[in-house]
Amino acid sequence: MTANTTVKPPLAERPTLLGWLRKNLFNSWGNAILTVAAGWLTFVTLRGLLTWVFTEADWTVIQTNLRLILLGQYPIAEVWRIWVSMLLLAFLIGNSLSIWGKGKTSTRFTVGLMGLLFALAFVVSGPSRTWLLAMGAVLGAGWWLARGAGKAMRNVVGIGWVVWPPIFILLLRGFTPDEGFLPLVGTNLWGGLMLTFMLTIVGIVFSFPIGVLLALGRQSDLRIVRWFCITFIEVVRGVPLITILFMAQLMLPLFLPSGLTIDRVLRAMVGITLFSAAYLAENVRGGLQAIPKGQYEAAYALGLSNPLSMGLIILPQALRLIIPILVGQFIALFKDTALVAIVGLFDLVGIARTVLAQPAFLGTHREVYAFISLLYWVFSYAMSYVSIRLEDSLGVGKR
Amino acid sequence: MTADKTPIIIAKDVHKWFGDFHALRGVSMEVKQGEVIVIFGPSGSGKSTFIRTINHLEEHQQGDIVVDGIELSHDVRNIEKIREETGMVFQQFNLFPHLTVLQNISLAPIWVKKWDKPRAEAKAMELLKRVGIPEQANKYPGQLSGGQQQRVAIARALAMEPKIMLFDEPTSALDPEMIKEVLDAMIELAKTGMTMLVVTHEMGFARAVADRMFFFDKGEIVESGTPDEIFKAPKEARTKLFLSQILHH
Fold first, then answer.
1. pLDDT score for B127
2. Domain boundary residue among A185, A201, A224?
3. Is residue A15 part of a domain?
4. Which of the residues A318, A324, B185, B209 could staple to B190 if both were Cys, CB 3.0 to 4.6 A apart?
5. A43 within domain boundaries
């Protein structure tokens, strides 16, 4: 549908390196001075950073604690479950990259991801290395297999993405109480990047439908429904996430009958979900308002009932419009989960603090925080990339 | 062309206010099955508002409207039933931009009439052939010209097999060279015996197929009659003035 024929400029204008430099960086005295100054500044900064990364920093802290940072205190005997989920995920990512990715960028991205996994494999040792290598291989295989796939394959991969999160959670948690095939692993043992993921996934999966319902409820003709939604949205939006998390961790037990306890991770998940849902509701409302009145009228004139008009005509258009905003919000949600460290959960940041408390690695703040920042960035950027591809393939802003 | 049957649309003393503005001041009209009615008049005269009250896109506040024996009331079931029997074509097309042409047309039969998909799509293709653009079936509305979009909109309304078709200024948003293709589709439809209420200033269309014409001004019907009566011997001064303005510019 989209014509992506890149038109080459005429020969005379085709850029040479020197020509490009002259045209863009040295086209006047002022610019030449700016270029030199900026170049010098970049050099100084980068030299400091690169020297630190490659010579001064002591990365053994990461190497030793990698499992802790990624998985928290998840029992070693059960770690294979995480790896299995990750293999599935890598396969899905590989499929998706070749189906929805864009030509060279898709290839580059796939190769980059594989490279990253293989590089990680060299840093770690033991069975993790095998698993990481397998992940890289599965990712590549998924990418290769889905090349030139038809519509049916797209649907299968789409369904795969919907089914993956519950599988992930179920696998990790297990379902047989003590012994058996998949023994329960208490959430008190969940931690690290895995916990951060878990909070994010649950937050996204549940806040999305709740947010949509709140947005629709806010426009409802039923007064009680409308007031409930408005009150919920305005109260939750008026409070910082951290206070909601504190409420969930410290206040909630006071209101519950003694003996009844709710899992701490679950409490954080509920808090994050409700918080995100309130914001999402307002974003969805913005999308709904952008749909012209004529769309409602055309739907009604065809005899579609109110719920059908919403579900078939209005919401699909409204949600498509706000994909960039939604993804922005989900990235923010991903990063905001770091706040659970303050209420005592061991997500990436929480784990980082325990690692720093180890006597052997005192004073390695820079290494640890640099590493977890890199992790946050990699996944945030991946989400952002997905968003852009999603917009492209849904034709946002084109029709 | 019209048999002496009971009217399919009965509007009696219909009033409508937008806040303080009295948009319809007691409009009464009876339309028999198979009649083609052209409604014209200056902008703001209430002609669009009137045909939009018939399928309850606008709510009338006083008077009675009965469509095919169904009284238009606040009852949602009645409203949806009337809407199933009346198709509507809008000035701005109002196609669904996220669906293909084929999906636009087959959507309502599938969800409202509960047809299975092959049947609805076969019907959609048949209608697309009728309006002359079967080759556009898998395109999105944004890829079509205005005239093509409006013909899809006609096909979409016809897919519900309505007894009545309402046209709200169907050619007003079109470039001149596209008006004819839409009018041709409408003329062809009129010849099949469809009951049609058309708000338009296309007097050529009125002359060709209208059974009766209604001139609206300031929320009232000023004059009505056959095209011959209206064009050759308009009785009211306001009708004369308006016709002279739109016919001799």
1. 96
2. A185
3. no
4. B209
5. no
Statement: residue B230 has pLDDT above 70? yes
What are the two backbone dihedrals, phi and then psi, of residue A261, each rounded to the nearest 5 degrees?
-120, 145
Q: Which residue has the tokens 């100084």?
A: A44
Same structural domain, A128 and A267:
no
Same domain as A195, residue A144: no
Q: What is the CATH number of the domain that holds A292?
A: 1.10.3720.10
pLDDT of residue A2: 46
The pLDDT score that the predictor gives to residue A231 is: 96
Residues of chain A with pLDDT under 50: 1-3, 397-399
- Does A179 share its domain with A198? no
The reported pLDDT for the residue numbered B155 is 96
Report the alpha-carbon distance of residue B126 to residue B131 in Å, rounded: 9
Residue with tokens 């820079």: A366
Q: Within this chain, do residues A122 and A250 fall inside the same structural domain, yes or no? A: no
Q: Does B24 touch chain A (CB under 8 A)?
A: no
Segments forming the whole domain that contains residue A84? 61-185
Q: What is chain B's mean pLDDT, rounded?
A: 92
**How close does chain A come to B31, measured CA to CA in Å?**
20
Which of B112, B140, B143 is closest, CB to CB, to A304? B112
| Total domains present in chain A | 2
**Chain B residues lying within 8 Å of A316, measured CB to CB:** 98
Q: For residues A220 and A313, state if they share a domain.
A: yes
Which of A185, A211, A226 represents a domain boundary (last residue)?
A: A185
The answer to whether A133 and A90 are in contact (CB under 8 A) is no
Please, which residues 304-323 of chain A have a Cβ atom closer than 8 Å to chain B?
304-305, 308, 312-313, 316-317, 320
What confidence tier does B202 reach under pLDDT thresholds 50, 70, 90? very high
Share of chain A above pLDDT 90, in %: 40
Chain A contact for B18, CB < 8 A? no
Asked whether residue A174 falls in the same domain as residue A200, the answer is no
Contacts of A395 in chain B (CB under 8 A): 140
Tens of pLDDT, residues B107-123: 999 999 999 999 999 99
Which member of A303, A313, A320 has the closest CB to residue B83? A303
**Cβ-defined contact of B111 to A298 (cutoff 8 Å):** no
Q: Do A226 and A157 share a structural domain?
A: no
Residues 258-297 of A with CB under 8 A from B: 292, 294-295, 297
Q: What CA–CA distance (Å, rounded) separates B179 from B172?
A: 8
pTM above 0.90, yes or no: no
Distance of CA B44 to CAs A152, B41, B217, Å? Answer: 52, 8, 8
Nearest CA in chain A to B112: A304
pLDDT at residue A14 in the model: 63
Query: How high is the pLDDT of residue A397?
Result: 46
Tell me the C-alpha distance between B202 and A386, whole Å. Answer: 50
pLDDT given at position B245: 87
- A162 and A79 in one domain? yes
Give the distance from CA A113 to its chain's centroid: 15
Token pair belonging to B222: 């000023």
Identify whether A376 is part of a domain.
yes
- On whether any CB of chain B is under 8 Å from the CB of A302, the answer is yes
Cβ–Cβ < 8 Å for A242, A204: no
Residue A291 counted as domain residue: yes
- The answer to whether B57 contacts chain A (CB < 8 Å) is yes
